[in-house]
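It is worth pausing here to work through a concrete case rather than discussing structure prediction in the abstract. The textbook approach is simple: state the sequence, then state the predicted structure, then interpret. We follow exactly that order.
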Amino acid sequence: MENINYTPKDILQKEFRQKMRGYDPNDVDSFLDNIIKDYETFNKQLQELSDENERLKVQVDELNKQVAVSSTQPLPTAGVSPSRTTTASQPMSSATNMDILKRLSNLERRVFGSQLDNNSNDSHRL
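Step two, the predicted structure:
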């Protein structure tokens, strides 16, 4: 708003000198009235956008705080040792299907233990 030369009030109160072959004062007044309306509309829109911008900045700050809090809290893991928790929170981008199958097989052995040992079919083990 620092670069604005005239406010709607300045435009309204501006008086022009009349000369012999000048413009029609009614046309000039009508045109200036339209300019005043535009200025008022622009000021209103500017205020609305400034308010919205502030609201969105506050919302972004709140969301950033939520992301920061959630990234510092460990993921809930039931029955997993603390050494496994750090591994589980890291991305497994390099894990292959074989790695996943081995882990699944080990997990099944731990969970179902004796039930799997009683069955003679070992085809599921890797």
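Step three, interpretation. Residues 25-72 form the longest helix (48 residues). The CA atoms of residues 74 and 89 lie 8 Å apart.
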